[in-house]
Design brief:
9 helices; Phosphorylase Kinase, domain 1; three-stranded antiparallel sheet; alpha+beta; 40% helix; five-stranded antiparallel sheet; globular; Aminoglycoside 3'-phosphotransferase, Chain: A, domain 2
Length: 283
């Protein structure tokens, strides 16, 4: 079936008539389109049903968890479903612009509010995805066990299966566990790089494409610092509103190890050296 027919059929399930569609950027894993319907503009994400089972249901739950904090603006989840061999996620369309004055201060305040949504147990009541990789969210009583067992160890297994040599990883895990501060679990976006936020046409800070869990809050900040794209104002104002434990800057590489390991397992050996360097540092 032609793509236009598929999109028209999905629009019809909502009582809409599709007028036109156009592809949007950000479709590395999924195909993403802006649908202009007679009722409204919406975003649709599509993938083959057997490629990433349950991905869109998990993403919808994550977006709804973030929205419930009344911190960042989060696209409304309109619905998920299956059409033939495709799964889809329908979302509110939020027009974007370049950040204007006050955006980064608002971003910091919103991130503070998000991270103050806390629990005693680390994890989540369902698993989800980080990029194209499954992300396990089994519950643990402390940050160190959660981080090692639910974040680092699964990546170690994947990289060893792919033939990468990381012989010092287990020693590094023991030392990393000693460095992790004792804080409650915060609600995390979980994949907070510059491609997963935008400034709305009213200068609101908007988050998209989450990989949520209740985890160590320094993880979000470390991911923000890893690839850039965030003003230094964010880190300054965040730390003023919700002070971080001493040594947080020195621990950034500890948390960045997870995200670099994910990149190694998705994109290949160009990330191997950076993963090896952090493991060596903690071995």
């Amino acid at each position: 079936m032609a793509l236009t027919s598929i999109l028209s059929d999905i629009a019809a399930t909502q009582g809409w008539e599709l007028l036109q569609s156009k592809p949007l950027s950000g479709g590395d894993i999924n195909a993403v389109y802006l649908l202009e319907c007679n009722q409204r503009l919406v975003v649709i994400k599509l993938n083959h049903s057997n490629a990433f089972p349950g991905m869109f249901q998990a993403e919808a739950k994550g977006l709804q968890l973030l929205a419930a904090t009344n911190s960042f603006r989060i696209p409304e989840v309109i619905g998920t479903g299956t059409h033939g061999t495709y799964d889809y996620l329908l979302l509110e369309y939020i027009p974007k612009q370049q950040p204007e004055t006050g955006f980064w201060i608002e971003f910091a305040s919103n991130l503070t509010k998000l991270h103050k949504e806390q629990r005693t147990q680390f994890g989540l009541d369902h698993d989800n995805y980080i990029g194209s990789l499954p992300q396990s969210n089994n519950s643990h009583p402390d940050a160190a066990t959660f981080y090692i067992e639910e974040r680092l160890r699964p990546q170690l297994v994947l990289s060893r299966d792919a033939g990468f040599s990381l012989s010092k990883a287990e020693n590094a895990f023991k030392n990393i566990a000693q460095e992790i501060p004792d804080e409650p679990a915060s609600l995390l976006h979980g994949d907070l790089w510059s491609g997963n936020f935008l400034a709305s046409d009213t200068n609101e800070a908007v988050l998209i494409d989450p990989a949520v869990s209740f985890g160590p809050r320094e993880m979000d900040l470390a991911m923000m610092a890893l690839f850039g794209g965030f003003s230094s104002e964010v880190f300054k104002h965040y730390n003023e509103e919700f002070p971080l434990p001493e040594g947080w800057k020195q621990r950034q590489a500890l948390w960045q190890l997870y995200y670099l390991w994910v990149h190694l397992n998705i994109f290949g050996s160009s990330y191997l050296r950076r993963v090896q360097d952090i493991i060596k540092h903690y071995s």
